[in-house]
Design the sequence.
């Protein structure tokens, strides 16, 4: 079951994201190290942007769907009247990865966008994480551009998918 997160989910979401950051580090991807801001998640939960995936009464996945793109995207997306949801912090507990849960979250995001008349689903991901980039390309996301997004010089690829 996927539902909107509540403030009572905050500690579980934070723990899940830290677990995923550790797992990513073990794989050689350090972009989430120090980038998980609990207070930002509190704000995003209050705003209704965070969703959680529940299996067997346990929170095993999360994602943020916001009508506002991160500030580092300002130069990427052309100014237009098109509506979009920005997908970020899609994460599944490492012990539950490889079972289709990320796809379940992504499909939910697409259905929600379609039901609400949103034109595009947009996202970014680390450019050198080939498996993740392929995940989005296989699901008909179009590559838009690449850019360094932080002082560490993390190179990200930007994607979007037309929904309606």
Sequence:
């Amino acid at each position: 079951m996927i539902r909107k997160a509540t403030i009572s989910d905050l500690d579980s979401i934070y723990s899940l994201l830290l677990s995923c950051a550790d797992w990513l580090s073990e794989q050689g991807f350090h972009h989430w190290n120090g980038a998980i801001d609990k207070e930002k998640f509190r704000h995003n939960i209050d705003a209704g942007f965070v969703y959680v995936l529940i299996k067997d009464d346990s929170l095993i996945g999360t994602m943020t769907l916001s009508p506002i793109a991160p500030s580092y995207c300002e130069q990427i997306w052309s100014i237009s009247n098109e509506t979009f949801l920005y997908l970020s912090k899609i994460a599944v507990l490492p012990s539950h990865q490889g079972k289709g849960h990320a796809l379940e979250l992504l499909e939910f995001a697409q259905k929600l966008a379609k039901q609400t008349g949103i034109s595009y689903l947009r996202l970014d991901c680390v450019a050198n994480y080939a498996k993740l980039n392929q995940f989005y390309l296989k699901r008909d996301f179009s590559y838009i551009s690449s850019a360094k997004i932080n002082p560490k010089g993390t190179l990200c690829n930007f994607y979007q998918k037309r929904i309606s």
